[in-house]
User: Which sequence fits this backbone?
């Protein structure tokens, strides 16, 4: 543990799904490794009274630690007076610690509510303390304008170093490995550019549908839900310049620079973008006319001379045949050699695969393509959950895995005109069967 400062994690919305499925289990796991501050308390903020801690711990191990170190605080999140009471409560915990503590506000509440809560934390004076940090979940806006607006609202109360915008994909172990892989292997480091690479694809294929989130999804769609956040951030990690002297603090700026040079391929927009909706979606959300896409595939270009001419594709969809997240790097074919493909498998079968050509045994001269495979599970028992890393890094003040407001605004800038076009007509919406493959949808 780099930072052993007494810490209070204030989970706003502790009875919610994210807290039960991800946050409390993550704290339980970090505590098991001993990497949590020795003076640590979770303060679960909620409107509800009579919360039974065990009802929140069904998915967690290390229940004993969580029972001992969690308290609840009932308050009206709309009422500024209650924020003063919250401040007093934090003071009481600090007295028990016998020392000042860091306050980590984790807003696990619907996006429409979080803006108001940020303002009230600010107005109550709680944001002015040097020890206060703010952890925010996506979405950070719904389009370019609202993202800029949210960003200035946050800046009114918080300094940028106090704010941690979570994109849990960046905290996945295998996403962190992208930089290590690119920088640590001389063969790939030297060939990571347009001279050798012809195409890059980032794919997040999901088997699940919208999982009952009808309201959220109807207003969001695949472009905003996954492409704007997770896929563009994975792409930024793939395209960005490598940090000098392995300085990890440089990474957010380098990701921003990569995003800043990206735009949707312009020459023939009908070929550059595809959208689809799984059949049955409209009944599920109760809107027979819904135009919301549950599948999106877009072609991009980078104006970075290093990536000039390289085809870039981002694809994601729900209710597809398989669940997987992959980055595919296609190496160029030369006149006297075949092409190779590098596959960074982010989930669920985490690993790396590289295709090579080999002579088929026999009298004739014939070649075949084979894969060199590395699988994390053959070497490591388990990979930490992304939310463990998110909480650990925020406690330690490490911003490298969090998005800056500049990055967020860039991602909305890239998609802005497409979003506007898609919101006005549905002429190109492909209706696909649940369980389809990506190529079945776009062929
Ligand atoms: C979330 C999206 O950010 O990521 C969900 O809102 C999506 O729609 C989820 O299902 C995917 O995350 P993971 O870690 O399960 O791949």
Assistant:
């Amino acid at each position: 543990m780099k930072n052993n400062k007494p810490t209070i994690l204030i989970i706003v919305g502790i009875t919610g799904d994210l807290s039960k499925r991800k946050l409390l289990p993550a704290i339980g796991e970090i505590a098991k490794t001993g990497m949590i501050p020795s003076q640590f308390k979770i303060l679960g903020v909620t409107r509800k009274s009579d919360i039974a801690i065990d009802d929140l711990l069904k998915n967690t191990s290390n229940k004993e630690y969580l029972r001992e170190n969690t308290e609840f605080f009932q308050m009206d999140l709309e009422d500024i007076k209650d924020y003063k009471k919250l401040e007093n409560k934090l003071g009481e915990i600090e007295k028990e610690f016998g020392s000042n503590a860091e306050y980590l506000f984790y807003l696990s509440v619907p996006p429409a509510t979080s803006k108001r809560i940020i303002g009230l934390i600010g107005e109550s004076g709680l944001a002015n303390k040097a020890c206060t940090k703010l952890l925010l979940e996506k979405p950070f806006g719904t389009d370019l304008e609202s993202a800029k607006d949210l960003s200035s609202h946050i800046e009114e109360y918080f300094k940028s170093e106090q704010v941690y915008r979570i994109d849990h994909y960046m905290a996945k172990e295998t996403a962190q490995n992208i930089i290590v892989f690119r920088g640590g292997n001389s063969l790939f480091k030297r060939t990571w550019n347009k001279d050798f690479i012809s195409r890059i694809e980032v794919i997040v294929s999901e088997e699940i549908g919208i999982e009952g989130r009808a309201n959220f999804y109807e207003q969001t769609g695949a472009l905003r839900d996954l492409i704007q956040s997770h896929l563009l951030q994975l792409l930024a990690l793939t395209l960005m310049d490598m940090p000098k002297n392995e300085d990890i603090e440089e990474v957010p700026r380098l990701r921003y620079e990569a995003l800043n040079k990206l735009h949707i391929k312009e020459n023939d927009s009908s070929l550059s973008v595809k959208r689809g909706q799984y059949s049955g979606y409209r009944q599920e959300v109760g809107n027979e006319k819904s135009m919301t896409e549950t599948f999106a595939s877009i072609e991009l270009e980078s104006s970075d001379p290093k990536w000039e001419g390289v085809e870039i594709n981002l694809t994601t969809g729900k209710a597809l045949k398989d669940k997987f997240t992959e980055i595919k790097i296609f190496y160029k074919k030369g006149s006297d050699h075949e092409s190779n493909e590098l596959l960074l498998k982010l989930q669920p079968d985490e690993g790396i695969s590289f295709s090579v050509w080999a002579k088929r045994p026999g009298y004739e001269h014939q070649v075949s393509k084979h894969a060199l495979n590395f699988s994390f599970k053959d070497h490591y028992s388990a990979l930490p959950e992304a939310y463990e890393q998110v909480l650990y890094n925020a406690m330690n003040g490490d911003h490298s895995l969090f998005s800056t407001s500049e990055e967020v605004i860039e991602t909305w800038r890239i998609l802005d005109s497409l979003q506007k076009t898609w919101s006005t007509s549905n002429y190109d919406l492909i209706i696909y069967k649940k369980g389809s493959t990506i190529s079945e949808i776009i062929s």
